[in-house]
Amino acid sequence: QVQLEESGPGLVKASQTLSLSCTVSGGSIDTTAYFWNWIRQRPGRGLEWIGNILYSGETLYNPSLKSLPTMSIDTSKNQFSLMLNSVTAADTAVYYCARSDYGVSFDSWGQGLLVIVSS
Amino acid sequence: QSALTQPASVSGSPGQSITISCTGTNSDIGFYNFVSWYQCHPGKAPKLIIYDVSSRPSGISNRFSGSKSGNTASLTISGLHPDDEAHYYCCSYTMSSTAVFGGGTQLTVL
Question: Label partner for B54 (CA 20 to 30 A): which of A37, A85, B21, B34?
Answer without folding.
Answer: A37
